[in-house]
């Protein structure tokens, strides 16, 4: 079996943005296959009694996080601008991603929406942002959004969110190499190195 890593992300997650922009290139360099798996952080936070991100609830942590984002983005040569609204709703594009897990354009779609949020400081929920990105990728948005908003399409994101919670995910991004979980953009390289080891590919 080829080396493999699971990338669990939320389009509203700032650290997911950093990982999303570089995971495919870093994985390819190591010969590792990536599965992009969207899930909603909101229900996981709600289970802890939180009504929003801990980066908002804890002022000192929030101040640290935005400076850390600037440092990490600069380290990896990535664009970043602190959004004027955080966390931003992203339910519709998350449904699009979940309902089209195997579509070759899905990672590019997600990266583009994260750039809208965390570089251009624009909202990403509602049909218009997803339609614009899909058209830019040469994809007809009508059937894509129709499937994402169908009962079957919506169910996929609920299922993935439940699976993430059942497997112990508590934040984004999270990575799995087999049953081994890594949390945070700063653990991406560790996770990829683990996946690339011969024992992980058997």
Would you kindly provide a written description of the structure presented here, covering whatever features stand out?
The chain is 55% helix and 10% strand. It is α+β, with helices and mostly antiparallel strands and 202 residues long. The longest helix has 17 residues, at 14-30. The model has no long low-confidence stretch (mean pLDDT 94).
Alpha plus pi helix count:
10
Structural class of the secondary elements?
alpha+beta
Q: Give the CATH architecture.
A: 3-Layer(aba) Sandwich
Low-confidence stretches: none
Which CATH class is shown? Alpha Beta
Biggest sheet: strand arrangement: 2-1-3-4
Helical proportion?
Answer: 40-55%
Largest sheet composition? 4 strands, mixed
Corresponding CATH superfamily? Glutaredoxin
Tell how many strands the DSSP assignment holds.
Answer: 4
CATH topology: Glutaredoxin
The overall average pLDDT, rounded, is 94
Sequence of secondary-structure elements: EHEHHHHHHHHEEH
Q: What gross morphology would you assign? A: globular
State Rg.
16 Å
The proportion of strand residues reads 5-15%
Question: How far from one another are the termini?
Answer: 6 Å
Q: Into how many domains do the coordinates divide?
A: 1
């Amino acid at each position: 079996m080829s080396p493999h890593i699971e990338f669990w992300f939320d389009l509203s997650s700032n650290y997911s943005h950093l990982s999303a922009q570089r995971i495919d290139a870093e994985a390819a360099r190591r010969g590792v296959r990536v599965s992009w798996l969207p899930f909603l952080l909101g229900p996981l936070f709600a289970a802890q009694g939180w009504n929003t991100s801990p980066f908002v609830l804890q002022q000192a942590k929030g101040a640290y996080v935005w400076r850390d984002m600037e440092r990490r983005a600069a380290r990896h040569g990535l664009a970043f601008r602190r959004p004027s609204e955080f966390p931003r709703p992203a339910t519709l594009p998350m449904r699009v991603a979940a309902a089209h897990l195997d579509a070759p354009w899905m990672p590019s779609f997600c990266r583009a929406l994260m750039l809208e949020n965390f570089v251009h400081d624009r909202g990403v929920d509602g049909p218009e942002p997803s339609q614009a990105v899909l058209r830019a990728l040469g994809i007809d948005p009508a059937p894509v959004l129709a499937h994402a908003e169908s009962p079957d399409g919506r169910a996929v994101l609920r299922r993935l969110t439940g699976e993430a919670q059942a497997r112990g995910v508590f934040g984004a991004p999270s990575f799995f190499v087999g049953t081994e979980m890594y949390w945070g953009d700063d653990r991406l390289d560790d996770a990829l190195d683990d996946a690339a080891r011969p024992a992980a590919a058997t």
